[in-house]
Amino acid sequence: EYEGDRNSEGQRHGFGKARLPNGDTYEGEYECGLRSGRGTYRFKNGALYTGNYLQNKKHGKGVFFYPDGSKYAGDWVHDQRQGYGEYLYANGDTYTGEWANNNRHGQGTYVYKDTGSKYVGGWVNGIQNGPAELIHLNHRFKGRFLSGKPLGRGKFIFDIGCEQHGEYIQQMQEKEEEEEEEPPVPLEPKWNVSEITKFTPWSPLDEEPPAPGEAGGPEPSSEGFNPASDAGGEGEERREEAVNQGQEDQGEK
């Protein structure tokens, strides 16, 4: 069903309202039969997108409300979260920063609602990677991350006025002789302390990045950080997104 403007060729063109065969609705601008310009798309499962379209694709600024309560507000390019935006996850965590191909990519800040801790630094394809700062209630860690884990030189900075310098070293679990053919299992990176000092200027940008093959297990929980704790929120987001995209891709008549 469609109610709205058409061009001389009978195509939807201008402003109109449409109800798709799957029960979704769209109200907004059209150009030569395709959603282009500002509009609001309501999915029958409760999801909603309001923002810019280009040839039936979310493109430009827009806000997507997911059925699980999560929300993304920011830039879109050809139906992908790309550019700069903020994502509020269903578990209350938030990410604000750069995106590419629907993933956190570039510089951004992830805030963990349960602990109040936040990661400020680099991301590659949705994973913490590069120079970063992990900020807790009364101390923070400055260093480098590789594949979601801290690795290499860094320092803990405590509010009481001192710093603990050291290095995260990747450990590998040794296999018994009969299991030698299997690859070694990565363990938690181990923090080795080198010295304790007063506050000193230092940046992880001064350090060489660790070798790519040295990434391993999760960060020690003693530092109050679980790199994988955001996975639940993003997992639900991806499931909802797959459902919503399938619905929206169905063409209008």
Characterise the protein shown here:
The chain has 253 residues and is mainly beta. Among the domains are: 1-82, Histone H3 K4-specific methyltransferase SET7/9 N-terminal domain (Single Sheet); 91-170 and 189-197, Histone H3 K4-specific methyltransferase SET7/9 N-terminal domain (Single Sheet). Helices cover 7% and strands 51% of the residues. The chain is built from one helix and 19 strands. The chain has one helix at residues 231-248, and strands spanning 2-6, 12-19, 25-31, 34-42, 48-54, 57-65, 71-77, 80-88, 94-100, 103-111, 118-124, 127-135, 139-146, 149-150, 152-158, 162-169, 172-173, 185-186, 190-197. The strands form two sheets. The chain has a 17-stranded antiparallel sheet that branches. A two-stranded antiparallel sheet has the order 17-18. A hairpin with a 5-residue loop joins β6 (57-65) and β7 (71-77). Residues 1-20, 170-253 are annotated as: Disordered. InterPro entries: MORN. Keywords: Cell projection, Cilium, Cytoplasm, Cytoskeleton, Flagellum, Meiosis, Repeat.
Condensed summary:
With 253 residues, the protein is mainly beta. The chain contains one helix and 19 strands. Among the domains are: 1-82, Single Sheet (Histone H3 K4-specific methyltransferase SET7/9 N-terminal domain), CATH 2.20.110; 91-170 and 189-197, Histone H3 K4-specific methyltransferase SET7/9 N-terminal domain (Single Sheet).
